[in-house]
Write a structure and sequence with these properties.
mainly alpha; 7 helices
């Protein structure tokens, strides 16, 4: 099986920048071989909030909790951790079934090698979304007149 990443160089106008494939590949890679992933990621570990899809944020938080506790990351242990964290219902709602979705993540990914690349893509898209959010806030402030600016007389 080959990982097929459907990442565009730039999303079409109006599309939110994110790669579902990169998110799925990183999560699947952790389920396949967590130690290979942690070795590849080291200092480049993404934050849960950098994942675009809420179900992926919940799953990543469960992974991080298990990693910190020294618990092996498998489909059943991840489902249990999500249940313990009170987020399994949210993941179920978004995916149609947590354990089935975790198995799909594994099937989506053929190797944990490349985890750093998947994490980089996730972080880059998160940075772009943050820029869009900040730019949008600035534009809204300009239209409402609530911008915190000081006019110097020069443009």
């Amino acid at each position: 099986r080959l990982v097929t990443l459907s990442m565009k160089a730039a999303p079409r106008r109006g599309e939110v920048p994110y790669s579902e494939s990169a998110e799925m590949a990183l999560l699947g890679a952790v389920l396949l071989d967590e130690w290979e992933c942690w070795g590849e990621l080291e200092e480049e570990m993404p934050e849960a909030e950098q994942f675009f899809l809420i179900e992926h944020q919940h799953i990543w938080r469960a992974f991080m909790a298990m990693y910190q506790q020294g618990i092996a990351i498998t489909v059943p242990t991840t489902a249990f951790q999500l249940s313990e964290m009170g987020t399994i219902e949210a993941v179920d709602k978004e995916t149609g079934g947590t354990e089935e979705y975790l198995v799909r993540l594994v099937a989506h990914t053929w190797s944990a090698v490349g985890s750093r690349s998947f994490a980089r893509i996730i972080r880059e898209y998160a940075a772009r979304r943050k820029l869009i959010q900040q730019g949008t806030a600035m534009v809204q402030q300009g239209f409402t007149g609530k911008a915190q600016t000081q006019y110097t007389g020069e443009i």
